Amino acid sequence: MDAHDRGSTPRHDDPGTPSDPTPSPEASAASEPTEPPGSTPAPDPAGPAPARTAISTPLPVSPDPDADPDPRAGVAALSFRHQIGVALALALVAIAVCVHIGMVFLHVAPVNTVTRQHGGAVDDWIYPEFEQNWKLFAPNPLQQNVAVQMRARIRGADGGSRTTGWYDLSAQDGRAIDGNPLPSHTQQNELRRSWDLFVATHDANNRPIGLRGSLSEAYLRRIAVLRVGREHALARGDVLVSVQVRSRTSNVPPPKWSDEKVSVQPVFRELSWWPVTADDTEGSVR
Fold this sequence. Notes:
- With about 290 residues, this protein is of the alpha+beta class.
- The chain is built from 7 helices and 6 strands; from the N terminus they run αααβββαααβββα.
């Protein structure tokens, strides 16, 4: 036989030529006949074709939600110096909270050894911002409306004198508070506390009792002088000579379903005229 006859000699593949005679997927797809849609493919007499191996791409792995968080998160992630600062700040807040709770407890607790020795420090801490008032829950709550009113004597530029009408200072504060979500401490308590202090330091004849009597008078008088300026009662050249303060007390009417009978007629407590000094006018400006 001819030595060049390739039919009787083993096949030698050329370098770079693939030895697998299996056609590529693109060639197989191109060689397969196209069948019309809806038709049933005819069975292959040579048997089923071998299964093709698909190359799958790995999917990205999502983080496990149950995995432990980073141990260096939050405060632990800060430097040592900043951790010391945070610890000191938390310690100061904790100390302030404990001191405040202790002061409030001593303020509402019965008189004891601590309050006898350090009652002034407790009152300085509580008043006026943290005042505790339990009258709402008392067995006999307040059942009266007390209004503080004032009027003034003014000397005009021509030398004449006139007296103003009564100004209802409590009603003015009530109108300022009504509908105000954040009323000031002055609008709520200045006038009320000054009148309570005056009543507590004076007898029924308006004579001072104790050392705080003159102080309560000066405090109430300066509030009245300040309110005269707010009312614009003074014209140019006018001089405020004196002021007078009174209270108007009326009982709260009982509910309709109650059989209780109370008088609704107001009761007035009228103080004497107080001359206005230069200290009063300067204090009211400050």
